Fold this protein.
Amino acid sequence: MVAKGPKGLILLENEKGGYFAKSPVEADTVLEGVVDSSRYFVLKVVGEGGRHAFVGVGFSQRSHAFDLKSAIQRFQNILKAENDAKSGGGSLIPDQDFSLGQGEEIKINLGKDKLKSPNEKKKKGSKKKRTKKKSSGGGVVPDDWVTF
């Protein structure tokens, strides 16, 4: 699943690594599951010119199916938060007053060790090798799209 702004897509990949179909994801999109399994779904794929078809999709592992459902939920939650922020419906300021009363103080003791950055705390010789994540080998997704 990829997204750019309010537009989300589930891209279906063929055996050669290219994309053969796309399914739009919107704020009200529901992934229709089958009755007797949590690994199989029905997607509405849309082609050029607005033609559409319903395609059955199955996963061999439940965790992969869960990942897809979670990605759709995260995308929809982001859309909802953006819409709430634009309309002023979602307030980030809590309703409770956490200000200090007259004469109240907060004292924070920080030792010298706590003031060091994480890089300074590392011991020499305990460097871990970083490996680059390999792409899934799928079709090309533009850089300005977010992958879920």
